[in-house]
Amino acid sequence: MAVAGLLALEYDLFRFAADMTTGERRITLAEAVALTLLLAGCIAAFVHRRLTEQSRDLGKRSQIDSEMRELRELALRDPLTNLPNRRAVLERLEELRSQDGRQHAFFMLDLNEFKRVNDGHGHSAGDGVLQVIAERFKRVSRPTDLLARLGGDEFAVVSNDVDLAGATAVGMRLLGALENKVWVQGVGHDVGVSIGAVMIPQDGNAVPEILANADIAMYRAKATDRSALVFFDGTPTAPRQYPRFAG
Q1: Residues 198, 213: contact at Cβ < 8 Å?
Q2: Which residues contact 158 (CB under 8 A, 6 or more apart)?
Q3: Is 226 exposed, middle or buried (0-12, 13-18, 19+ CB in 10 A)?
Q4: Listed residue (147, 150, 221, 212) closest to 177, CA to CA
Q5: What dihedral angle (degrees, nearest 10) is formed by the CA atoms of 135, 171, 160, 151?
Q6: 33-43: string of b/e by CB count within 10 Å (b at 16+)?
């Protein structure tokens, strides 16, 4: 732009353009140099402007992508326990369908006697109990497990690449996490857990089937009136039970 301004002061560019249309006007060396500089300046200004616009657009796009990632993470996380939520579990279960030839396990956990905590000590205490239990479950879960809160007093665990023996070990650790009282606000609470387990793909492969069968197994566990781990086996009369802890 500076070059263009200087040339405009030095030459009457409009008259120069008119003279060039007559076919009689010859361009001098100085004029050729000046025109070259003017063209180069215009090109440089155009390129600089485009690069600036692209850089600004990339910055905005990066900011939008970052904000979208944050929103997605919030959408997949439970605000009370900071665990993944039900939506995250559904996505993980859907991903497992593409992993042919590999075994996985899904656990549905429902707390026992939690309603007594809310009724006797208030929802603030209940929230504290859920947070403590979430941390205990987190400590006994494998790093590759997806531990989530489904809502209320229900949790879930998705364990990748485990056979029945490995899944049983995972379930027993979850039972053991609530063997001791849960202390919140100076009060100890006896809270147990009923766990329904499903082996994937043996006991179900489609997500609705997995959830339904895990729910069936979980209610069988709850019928034992104590903390228990029950695997779904497809029949209503002979579930594999692993009762261990009262409560």
Answers
A1: yes
A2: 89, 92, 93, 96, 104, 105, 106, 107, 145, 146, 148
A3: middle
A4: 147
A5: -50
A6: ebeeebeebee
Structure confidence at residue 237 (pLDDT):
42
User: Which helix (H) or strand (E) segment is 147 a member of?
Assistant: strand 146-151
Cα separation, 134 vs 176, whole angstroms: 13
Q: Hey, what are 163's tokens?
A: 């056979």
**What is d(CA 121, CA 112) in angstroms, rounded to the nearest whole number?**
16
Residues 37-66 pLDDT 10s? 888 888 888 888 888 888 887 777 766 655
- Token digits of residue 56: 């600004």
| Beta carbons within 8 Å of 141's beta carbon, 6+ residues apart | 147, 157, 170, 173, 174
**Length of the chain measured in residues:** 247
Per-residue tokens: 54: 């692209």
Q: What is the pTM of this model?
A: 0.70
Q: Percent of the chain scored above 90 by pLDDT?
A: 55
